[in-house]
Specification:
Elements lengths: L1 E4 L5 H7 L8 H6 L3 E6 L3 E11 L3 E9 L8 H15 L4 E7 L4 H7 L3 E6 L7 E7 L1
Parallel strand pairs: 4-5
Antiparallel strand pairs: 1-2, 2-3, 3-4, 5-7, 6-7
GO molecular function: acyltransferase activity, transferring groups other than amino-acyl groups
Protein name: N-acetyltransferase
Pfam families: Acetyltransf_1
Length: 135
């Protein structure tokens, strides 16, 4: 598996699959290197990861998506560790992410050293768990 910064040519791939982001934000995030593409040598793109900044100063992983056939094979771990290395290289000392309490991802992030740091409860939604990790 390879992890690369998304490029303008990945716009359609992201637009067709990432339904949690406003379309007009895709190109700016690509151009700011805030989206990574996960690639498999055999079949091309197998997922993506995107992030932003909480409080405009703390990297916050907004989305990690891996196509079903590539899950539970270390792909997610590699993607998160790649992102962590990039953020450390850029001088950041704290990272954040979140997951719904109803999702298995909370256990994945805890295994990678993320700690529960708070929560958010929106009407009609499961509890959103905020997680942080010091680098």
């Amino acid at each position: 598996m390879n992890i690369v910064f998304a490029s303008d040519s990945d716009y359609e791939y992201i637009k067709e699959r990432d339904h949690h982001m406003l379309e007009y934000l895709i190109l700016p995030k690509i151009r700011q290197n805030e989206i990574f593409i996960l690639k498999n040598d055999d079949c091309g793109n197998i997922g993506w990861m995107r992030y932003s900044y909480f409080w405009d100063n703390t990297p916050f992983m907004n989305m990690l998506w891996i196509d079903a056939p590539y899950r539970k094979k270390g792909t997610g771990t590699k993607a998160v560790l790649f992102w962590e290395d990039e953020m450390k290289r850029n001088g950041f000392k704290l990272l954040m992410t979140s997951t719904l309490a109803s999702e298995e991802a909370q256990h994945f992030y805890r295994k990678l050293g993320y700690r529960d740091s708070g929560c958010l409860l929106l009407e009609g939604e499961p509890l959103e768990i905020l997680l942080t990790k010091s680098l």
